[in-house]
Amino acid sequence: MFHRTWALAAFGVLILGQTAASPGPQKPADSQPAARPGESAAGGRRPQQSDVLRDLLLQQGRNRPVPARAPETTAAGGPRLGPDGQPLLLEGTFLIERPGRLVYDGGRPRFEFLLDDGATAPRIVELLPNQLLETLEQEARLGFSEFVISAEVTQYHGANYLILRKVLRRVSNGNLGP
Fold first, then answer.
1. For residue 91, what is the DSSP state?
2. Running DSSP on this structure, what letter comes out for residue 61?
3. Nearest-angstrom CA–CA distance, 152 and 100
4. What are the residues facing 160 on neighbouring strands?
5. Which alpha helices (DSSP H) does 31-130 contain, by range?
6. Would the CA dihedral through 51, 57, 63, 65 be positive or negative?
7. What is the C-alpha separation between 175 and 148, in angstroms, rounded?
């Protein structure tokens, strides 16, 4: 009996609590005055999307990227030349399957490209350290002299550098050809 009374009392408190907490009758949504275009229901002006986006970006405090510089030219208006006398390649350029050999200049590894049609001097570019450079050096120690590489060009203080992305041995077929 005690449990039944306790359950009825709890149920009554629950019902009374909900009735007291619920607000009085509300007006239907369509009976409230409509907001004008460009204003919120509270009467203030609604911001444009561009204003909201700008404010969000300012609140985040993001750093803005530094714009890349345009390719530099010499006083004569021609392209700037690298230490090998060749025009500098643009940062981010990919060289795909280019033949050449590994050479050292002052203890630093460089790649000397084989002459292209019309080139008067070979392009020699310093190689940046990575695992593929280590592989290239090991292959050169085993006696292989020519390679075919794919690499990404970087530029720093008026000189080009290469980051190797692919290294293949160039095999000579002697007088056999297609």
1. T
2. T
3. 15
4. 155
5. 49-60
6. negative
7. 20
Residues in the chain: 178
What gap in Å lies between CA 88 and CA 160, rounded to an integer?
6
Q: Quote the DSSP letter at residue 84.
A: T
Which 8-state DSSP code applies to residue 45?
B
Percent of the chain with pLDDT over 90: 34
Q: Is the pLDDT reported for residue 160 higher than 80? A: yes
Q: Tell me the two tokens of residue 79.
A: 């392209």
pTM confidence score: 0.55
The residue ranges of every structural domain in the chain are 97-138+151-169
Distance CA 59, CA 52 (A): 11
Cα–Cα distance for residue pair 126/105, rounded to 1 Å: 9
**Residue 52 backbone class (left: φ over 0; alpha: ψ -120 to 50; beta: rest):** alpha
What's phi and psi for 124, nearest 5 deg? -120, 120
